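Hi all, long-time lurker, first post. I run a small reading group and we've been trying to get comfortable going from sequence to structure in the token notation. Rather than ask abstract questions, I figured I'd post a concrete chain and ask someone more experienced to write out its structure so we can walk through it together at our next meeting. Sequence below, copied exactly:
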Amino acid sequence: MARRHHIAVGDWASVARRLEELISARSAEDPVAVAVELVLLRLQQEAAGAGPPLPLAEQLQQANDRWPALMARPLLARLDPSLVQSCLDVLSPLRLRQAQGSALDAIFEGLTARRRRGEKGQFLTPRTVCTALVKLLDPQPGERVLDPACGLGGMLLATAAHRGKDAGPLLGADIDPAALRVARLGAVVAEIAGLDLEHRDSLAPGALEPHLNGPVDVILTNPPFAGEVVDAALCAAYPVTGGGRAERDALFLERCVGLLRPGGRLGIVLPHGRLVNDRDGPLRDWLLRQVQVLAVVGLPDETFQPHTSLRTALVVGRKRPLPLDPTEPLPDEAIAFCLSEKAGRDRGGRPIPRAGADPQAPAWLALDHDLNEVVDFIFDDLASVWRAHG
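-- Answer (accepted) --
Happy to help. Here is the structure in token form:
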């Protein structure tokens, strides 16, 4: 008999493992699709509050009436009711709305990791990293914010939490429709309006422009790292990073700069090697002529564990009004270099709680990380640049 996973309070990953164990053992349905409907059903229960529980069929109907787009495939109605109840028993101790994304991130990180990472190197961005980038770029109400590789929507949901739930527009795109469904679920859990998501390949020339209707004010993103793009026609659309073949994150960097308005703000997660490798010298030179890089924050090796130990960094900057002349020397501009040493998770990807914190609080408050100190150290300098250039 398979070993049952222990469900620890605040350890959302243990919830994901138990759900996957239950669903996979007793159903042939996609665990991610089933989990989306389970979370919606649990939210319906939370909204109903205390009192005698309604029959499961009535609860399902209420959830379907409330969220028809996300319950478009009523999988739960086709499953054994005892399986559905067992899964609800796993979710019943959790306060999904109070966790503000921490619960969903961990649950769906476990359920989607194998499908998303593949050859494209797609990994969920920890909510602490999303929050840090949002705080550094400080998106204001009314600014158009884009994540062209939004995945489960962490950057956009963190933006909404930063500037107000109804302060859109929040624009996102991703090549994975299952991930977008989870992102929409995250907006429901956090009660956020104004999330505008599209199923698009953001690297395809012209794929995003009709959706965006012009350059955007802020881009926050963690693009896929791994895997070379060998499509010659696609690479030809990226004269700096392309050629016959190119690495995906480098193409995304060029794409992001192109989608920003002059003076717009960029926050992107990049492999550390992009910042130091000799072969990436031309890419860095191009970036510094297009963008005034203001801060680089090295992230701990544990940041994306247990999926990869690849070293990464946050790069924050402002798109220049006009690119600098490539024949002229680069200007002597200050860049804040910081090193984060505590990721709030160990090498196995398990959360490390902050002493005395509520384990069901948002990750920024609940986990033992130091990105809050990094933000405090450099934000005032960044904010002066944002204010000066609008």
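A couple of things your group might point at:
The chain has two domains: 12-94, 120-389.
The beta strands are 145-147, 170-174, 195-199, 216-221, 228-229, 246-247, 260-271, 291-298, 312-319, 336-339.
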